[in-house]
Design brief:
alpha/beta, globular, TIM Barrel, 14 helices
Length: 333
């Protein structure tokens, strides 16, 4: 199992190989609820970037890319693996995928953790979180802790569960128990385990929502959730409903918009993910009610908001458009 970013790169590489041979009802304004009397936060006070938006730029010019993000007004970044300390299988999977996609960098982009921190500091940026594969999270936690101390990560974790480990509801229960156990080990190191759901497990199985089975079992003192707005909607769930249901868990968010409302048709497998990539668009340019979703996110305790547009074709233009919209957006509830 590789990280979410490596997973996406691998699926993109697979797709390349094969090529060679209104607004959602679930996110529309809801009737008055018990939180309607609480004033919505008016603005987002800081914004970050999920670095899988621009891996080629980082691979070609790491320092210059961070400087560009800072000039646009971003203050945080989220790193993706694999890293020098990642297990061998994650590193090998990345090498195979990156050859197809035309860039080789990931993790620290050939630098040490200290050098990455120095680059962040020079540009007035911080990195509160990172993604890594499950095997590395479980087996190399001490190494993650050392890097977290150096770079400043407060959250470290996974963004997808291996398919073979989420086939049944009991699989989801076991995964929750494993994340809790890893989180308990991470707590003395100063960070929480992060789990980002990639859009699978959000529709009923045997009368239950698998993702909620997992969420209900997580310990919020050691594990935090990261919502990806785009993939949550694609998976058939209402972001606002989930944010309101789990205010003790959601602490991070990936902000994407959809050019038109689209859903998974195969439960969120590789083909589903690849088929929906073309519908990603800059914040405010699509059909999602971002002002309301972000208002509920902030109301419920989300701390870090990362703009992400996977493998963006023109990162400065696209990230610039997103931050201009988000900086001026008045949030609602």
């Amino acid at each position: 199992m590789v990280s979410r970013r490596s997973f996406l790169v691998t699926t993109a590489a697979a797709a390349a190989g094969l090529a060679a041979g209104c607004r959602s009802g679930g996110i529309a304004p809801a009737p008055s609820s018990d939180i309607s009397s609480t004033a919505a936060p008016e603005k987002l006070d800081r914004l970050g970037v999920g670095l899988f938006t621009l891996p080629k730029s980082l691979s070609n010019d790491f320092d210059g890319t961070l400087a560009m993000l800072a000039r646009l007004g971003y203050t945080e970044v989220e790193l993706f693996g694999p890293y020098p300390f990642s297990v061998q299988s994650a590193q090998e999977g990345w090498r195979r995928a990156s050859t197809t996609l035309g860039f080789s960098g990931s993790g620290f982009f050939g630098r040490t953790a200290r050098q990455v921190r120095d680059s962040l500091d020079r540009n007035g940026l911080t990195s509160p979180s990172m993604h890594v594969d499950l095997d590395t999270l479980r087996d190399r936690l001490d190494a993650i802790g050392e890097a977290a101390h150096e770079i400043g990560w407060r959250y470290a974790g996974i963004a997808s569960i291996p398919e073979e480990r989420r086939r049944t509801l009991d699989d989801y229960r076991r995964m929750a128990d494993e994340l809790n156990a890893i989180g308990a080990r991470a707590k003395p190191m100063g960070f929480k385990v992060l789990y980002h759901n990639h859009g699978y497990g959000l529709t009923p199985v045997g009368g239950q929502i698998p993702a909620r089975v997992l969420f209900d079992r997580l310990d919020p003192s050691v594990v935090a959730l990261e919502m990806d707005i785009y993939w949550t909607v694609a998976g058939g769930a209402d972001p606002v409903e989930l944010l309101d249901a789990y205010p003790r868990l959601y602490r991070l968010m990936h902000v994407k918009d959809m050019s038109k409302l689209v859903r998974f048709t195969r439960g969120g497998d590789v083909q589903d993910v690849m088929s929906l990539f073309p519908f990603m668009t800059t914040a405010g340019a699509g059909v999602l009610d971002l002002r309301r979703i972000l208002g509920h996110a902030k109301r419920n305790g989300v701390e870090h908001f990362y703009v992400e547009q996977d493998l963006a074709a023109d990162p400065p233009a696209q990230l610039g458009a997103s931050i201009r919209y988000l900086r001026d957006a008045t949030l609602t509830i």
